[in-house]
Amino acid sequence: MGDLAANRARPLAVSPHGIGIALGFLLGAQLMVRRARRFGGPNEDDIWNSLFYALIGSIVGARVGYVLGHFAEVTDGGDDILGIFRIWEGGISLIGGITGAVLFARCPTRGKKMGFWRSMDLAAPGLALGIVIGRIGDLIIGDHLGKPTEFALGWRCLGEVGGEPPFPPSATWRRWRRVLLRRSVAST
């Protein structure tokens, strides 16, 4: 299967970090819809439409937030302004993504009279869930590890900080394939 995160020869590179973010957004969105049903919130179709705008806004905002915080790095000291658009080289911001999602979803929530603060209340637990799932992807690739700790619940990184991921994605995928294969054989 190869190293999915590092293999740039393929038309689409997949990383555990990206999968974690996408899965986190989808599960967080589903939680928002379920909460709206439970608490008598806005129409489900209106929520999904707003979530579509929030998705677009989160992608745009995540990149804009990163570029604003790392402009010199992204543009090679201002010499290469097109570096702003090289998203395949990495660089997204959590706060930028949240800000973009809120700003882009503001118009549809207003137009459908969903109530901005009510919508934010419905979205908050889903946002937290999405961040947690996205951070699991970070841990898999060894990103955002923080400083070393002796705390009992601390994450033990087997890789080098700033170096290779603690578990190369190819090894992670092989491990999951073995688990899934065992479960599928055991269930038959």
Report on this structure.
It is a single chain. The protein is mostly helical and 188 residues long. The chain has one domain. 62% of the residues lie in helices and 0% in strands. It is built from six helices and no strands. α2 packs antiparallel against α4. The protein is globular and about 50 Å long. The chain starts with 15 loop residues before the first helix and ends with a helix. The relative contact order is 0.16.
Topology order in helix (H) and strand (E) letters: HHHHHH
Q: Supply the helix-strand structural class.
A: mainly alpha
Helix percentage: 55-70%
| Number of domains as seen in the coordinates | 1
Q: Supply the number of helical segments.
A: 6
> Strand percentage, roughly?
under 5%
Spans of at least 5 consecutive residues with low confidence: 1-7
The biggest beta sheet is recorded as: none
How far from one another are the termini? 25 Å
Assembly type of the shown chains?
A: single chain
Give a summary of the structure in a few sentences.
The model is unreliable at 1-7 (pLDDT under 50). The longest helix is centred in the N-terminal third of the chain and has 26 residues, at 44-69. The chain is 62% helix and 0% strand.
Keywords:
188 residues, mainly alpha, 6 helices, 62% helix
Topology at a glance:
Layout: H1 16-38, H2 44-69, H3 71-74, H4 94-111, H5 116-141, H6 169-187
Helix pairs in contact: 1-2, 1-5, 2-4, 4-5
